[in-house]
Amino acid sequence: MWEETIARIAERRTNPATRIDASRSRPLLMPPVNEEAIRAAERNLGFALPSFLSALYTTVGNGGFGPGYGLVGLQGGHTSDDRSLVDWYTAVSSAEPDRVSIWPRAVVPICDWGCAIYSCVDCSTPDGRVLTYHSGELLWDAAGEHVVSLDQAFALSHEQLVDFFDDWARSIDLWSLMFEDDPTKSRVVGINPFTRKPMTFAAPSATAPTKATSMILEAQRGGTPPTPPLQSDGRVGRYAPSCARR
Q1: pLDDT digit string (tens) for 199-234?
Q2: What is the DSSP letter of 239?
Q3: What is the pLDDT of residues 57-83, one digit of tens each?
Q4: What is the 8-class DSSP label of residue 70?
Q5: Domain boundaries, the chain
Q6: Burial 193-223 (b: 16+ CB within 10 A, else e)
Q7: Which of 59, 75, 84, 131 could bridge across to 154 with cysteines, CB 3.0–4.6 Å?
Q8: Are 121 and 161 in contact (CB under 8 A)?
Q9: Three-state SS across 107-127?
Q10: Under a CB-based contact definition with an 8 Å cutoff, are residues 154 and 131 in contact?
């Protein structure tokens, strides 16, 4: 049922200039993995991967192609910040009792866009809906304190992972689907996929300190991850990005 989409992805993957969206990187071609690699990843994660994601790994390759800086691979595949898919989820979901923010269970970063922006797949949903995670300075004030909870940094991008990758394979500008310009830079809007309510909160000031990607690993953990609902209102969540596209 995904044959045409898989074929389009595989074709775009063969061209180094179009293998990923980021112009500064040329990932190596990673061979597909076997079913045991999928099972091993799922055992380490504690939940199953969406069927289409497994199909990408077993038929196209172990990451290194796709939106942003490319699909993060399983063990031995394409990495983001030297981390595999399992490594990333383990890092962002590690509980620290002294932290007020909690990473949602089974929401796995799969594509890095830079500037602490990630496309994540919600593995608790049957079709693997795709959420845009955008932290940057949005969760913090100038003193480094939380200004909104972590779950409000997510917005719905696609209801199904296959549609997300099909759009990419057709050269649709995913960035424009995920983000919209806000000339005033005074607000950030989106649809919270967990509460299904619109989000509006203040955008960071120009002088606010930039937070590195490591803040996801070091400062946004703790508590018991909530289980996201299986339904959504279907609207595309958008943000006004706080940094330039690479």
Answers
A1: 544 443 332 222 222 333 233 333 333 333 322 333
A2: B
A3: 999 999 999 999 999 999 999 999 999
A4: -
A5: 3-219
A6: bbeeeebeeebbeeebeebebebbbebbbbe
A7: 131
A8: yes
A9: EEEEEEEECCEEEEEECCCCC
A10: yes
